[in-house]
Amino acid sequence: MYDFNYEVKDGVATITLNRPEVMNALTLEIYAQLRDLFETLRYDDEVKSVVITGAGERAFCSGGDVHKIIGVMLDRDMRAHVEFCRMTGALVRNMRLLGKPIIGALNGTTAGAGAVIAIACDLRIMADDAKFAFLFTRVGLTGADMGAAYLLPRLIGQGRALELLMLGDDVDARTAERIGLVNRIVPKAEVLPLAQEWATRLAKGPTFSIGMTKTLVNNEWTMDIGSAIESEAQAQALLMMGEDHRAFYEAFKAKQKPEFKGR
Predict the structure, then answer these.
(1) Is 65 in contact with 220 (CB distance < 8 Å)?
(2) What domains does the chain contain, in order, with CATH numbers?
(3) pLDDT tens digits, residue range 88-143?
(4) N or C: fewer beta carbons within 10 Å in the chain?
């Protein structure tokens, strides 16, 4: 069905890019399949959280396949180029619009489009020997690709974002953690288990409130402070009337652990 591995267990969907022989490089088909999958996941009640990782030990994702994308696209006209770039951007848009947490398990090199997919995740866990690189200017393209110029400054600030997007230099794991590019760095063998642990914890939590948190963080990027506070007031009032909040209160009174239902 997909040109990557996909499985769902205990409310966690795990996507594994599975072309380790080419450092999990993306093809036109994989881009389109990921774009459509993240749209479909909006309506899949079985899935509460998502993990995306790469097969093998070398890479999370090295970006677009040089031969199967660059080699192919250079023979196409301008309209086809625009359609392709809109498709890759739609993947990131669908990731950000998904009201469920996405965790990037960055098990190795995270470069080019792979780096943008990583920053489109909500949380990132990186192998301590891995590297990040926004390669676009190194191949004669703009560093502003797939939403990178929108997302990256919000993660690490405009100055650092411009440094990475303009120079295209490799960023080692410790630097990535220090500047806020990733949430955790751990030994390679611990990357996916920790990502699964976080995803399972989120899947068992108050999923509606977690999704609302992601939505508000996304929406408030373009709001003034007054609009943001009012938006949070309305959202919080709704959540205070939800079943999960009541479940917390009843469990608190009974000195028990609450069981959340995502409502």
Answers:
(1) no
(2) 5-203 (3.90.226.10), 207-253 (no CATH)
(3) 999 999 999 999 999 999 999 999 999 999 999 999 999 999 999 999 999 999 99
(4) N
Q: If phi over 0 gives left and psi between -120 and 50 gives alpha, with beta otherwise, what is residue 156?
A: alpha
| Tokens of residue 119, six digits | 């920053």
pLDDT 10s digits, 182-233: 999 999 999 999 999 999 999 999 999 999 999 999 999 999 999 999 999 9
Helix (H) or strand (E) holding 184: strand 184-186
Residue 7 to residues 10, 24, 188, 239, Cα–Cα distance (Å): 10, 18, 21, 31
Alpha helices by DSSP H, listed for 157-206, are: 158-167, 173-178, 188-203
Strands of the 49-54 sheet, one edge to the other? 5-9, 12-17, 49-54, 102-106, 123-127, 184-186
What's the pLDDT band for 249 if we cut at 50, 70, 90? confident
What are residue 59's DSSP bridge partners?
109
* Cα angle 187, 131, 170; round to 5: 155
